[in-house]
Amino acid sequence: MKFLYVAVAACMLALAGGPAAHAQQQLPGAIAPNSTDLQAGYCLGLLKMLDDPGPIMRVRTYIADRLAVVDGEPIMAASRKAEKDIEASVVNAEACVKSNCRPNDRSCVMQCALQPDTKAHISSCMALDFLPR
Description:
Shape: elongated
Strand content: under 5%
Distance between the termini: 37 Å
Helix content: 55-70%
């Protein structure tokens, strides 16, 4: 099972070439997060799996700045959704491996880990091109 998590994470990294460390209290008059804020929250949930501090720090910095003015709960919910999506992808990859792969066939495992739905969920998170510069 751990190898599948690593395989999914490796696939994410190949596509690229947590919630924020702590939630801040919502300020009175905070506005709803925009689509970039929500995508940043989702991507943070995915990027945590890679344990690569560069992209994670960029997303965390963006979110921390935005939490001063937007409602943070939808952003944290997006991050939790990403974590659940990764867990579901691992379950699907595990079933694929069990049904289709011979023992120690890493190529087959990688194909199972990189299903089209998984790729669709993670490809934009890897480039972070949705974040402002």
